[in-house]
């Protein structure tokens, strides 16, 4: 098994929490993992990105080469397009459809959606709305993770277990909200 994953978004959206859950699930599945993060601007609503490499064999580098990503998970649609050069020709993009407009010249959403729809493997969900409607407003990021589960190739139960371990110290209510969010994402993205 080998998966090269780019997680991206804007500071404060929960990208690093998703990376932690995936990493925890992978390590408990006996996989090797390498991770590189860029999150210096996260306090100011800037770009946050993580390269996450999983493999059943040892991994030499923590960076993903151009055209090498199997999956891009993006909390923000323009950020998904920013990392498109890294996506393999058969790769998947799983992205929120809700823009985080933090720059004055943010592109027109119809143009962004049209660009994404040209790609062969895209799942685009309004995770913010789904989170609100289902009473888990702080777990939109985990809804996106649930939508990416099949593309990641990680067993659903292993992601649930990782959520329990990662969020366990925050209490049972937080754990249950995130498990519910994972299920919502999986259901919303079902073929």
Architecture overview:
The mean pLDDT is 93. The radius of gyration is 15 Å and the shape is globular. The longest helix has 17 residues. The chain is built from seven helices and six strands; from the N terminus they run E-H-E-E-E-H-E-H-E-H-H-H-H. It is α/β, with parallel strands linked by helices. A hairpin with an 8-residue loop joins strand 2 and strand 3.
Topology, please?
Blueprint: E1 2-10, H1 15-27, E2 32-38, E3 47-55, E4 69-74, H2 77-82, E5 87-96, H3 109-117, E6 122-125, H4 127-133, H5 140-152, H6 156-167, H7 172-188
Parallel strand pairs: 1-4, 4-5, 5-6
Antiparallel strand pairs: 1-3, 2-3
Helix pairs in contact: 1-6, 4-5, 5-7, 6-7
Write a brief caption for the model.
It is built from 7 helices and 6 strands; from the N terminus they run βαβββαβαβαααα. It has 191 residues and is of the alpha/beta class.
């Amino acid at each position: 098994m080998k998966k090269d994953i780019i997680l991206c978004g804007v500071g404060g959206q929960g990208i690093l929490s998703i990376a932690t859950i995936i990493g925890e699930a992978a390590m408990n599945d006996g996989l090797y993992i390498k991770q590189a993060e860029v999150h210096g601007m996260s306090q100011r609503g800037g770009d946050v990105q993580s390269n996450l490499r999983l493999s059943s064999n040892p991994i030499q580098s923590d960076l993903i080469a151009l055209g090498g990503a199997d999956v891009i998970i993006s909390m923000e649609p323009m950020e998904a397009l920013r990392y498109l050069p890294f996506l393999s020709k058969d790769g998947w993009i799983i992205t929120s459809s809700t823009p985080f407009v933090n720059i004055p010249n943010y592109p027109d959403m119809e143009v962004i959606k049209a660009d994404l729809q040209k790609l062969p493997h895209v799942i685009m969900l309004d995770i913010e709305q789904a989170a609100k409607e289902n009473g888990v407003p702080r777990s939109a990021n985990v809804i996106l993770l649930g939508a990416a589960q099949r593309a990641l190739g990680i067993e659903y139960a292993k992601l649930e277990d990782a959520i329990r371990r990662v969020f366990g110290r925050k209490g049972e209510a937080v754990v249950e909200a995130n498990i519910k969010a994972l299920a919502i994402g999986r259901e919303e993205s079902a073929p």
